[in-house]
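Handout, section 3.2

Students often ask what a structure token actually looks like in practice. Rather than define it abstractly, here is a full record for rRNA adenine N(6)-methyltransferase. The first block is the sequence as you would receive it.
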Amino acid sequence: RFIACPQLARTVRRCLQRGAGPGPQPLLLEFAPGPGILTRSLLDAGFRVVALESNSDFFADLQSLESSLDGQLKVIYGDFFRLDPLTKGALKPPAVSSDKIFEAMGVAAVPWRADVPVKIFGIVPQQLERNRLWRLLFALYECSSIYRYGRVELNLFISEKEYTVLTAKPGKSKIYQALTVLAQLGYEIELLHK
């Protein structure tokens, strides 16, 4: 669920920096950072990071790191895959509102033609992976949750099986599905690292 290898953290950092011009690095929402190995690498590269962590063991260490920095890191207790649940009333943590996250990040809504206001990085757990990908896609077409603020750049580790489905071409009857078509219409899918 998280990156534990410093070499992989450097590789991910390079992928996230790709295409960035001179000047400050963009704002990054990292979900489930775990022990913060990638987080530290991103901070060292000049990224401003909002870490969304639901594991209390890791949360305390990340808060300690946050307090040692001058606003470059914001840590929020929450679960990315429990963003904006469809229930009424107050949210019970680790469920969290995307409005709260974007407010903490200082990100305001922008038109869809504007630059991407935030990059999001995380590892999609293989348990219920397809359901989670569907939920992200559903939110995209509704312009809700993380997409309420404009376009976002999702940088996700997903299984090779789901990547194959997302990038299938017509004629591949076993893997070319509704998820394939809708994802290819809504997202610009690019393999960054394998």
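Discussion prompt for tutorial groups: The chain is about 35% helix and 15% strand. How would you have guessed this from the sequence alone?
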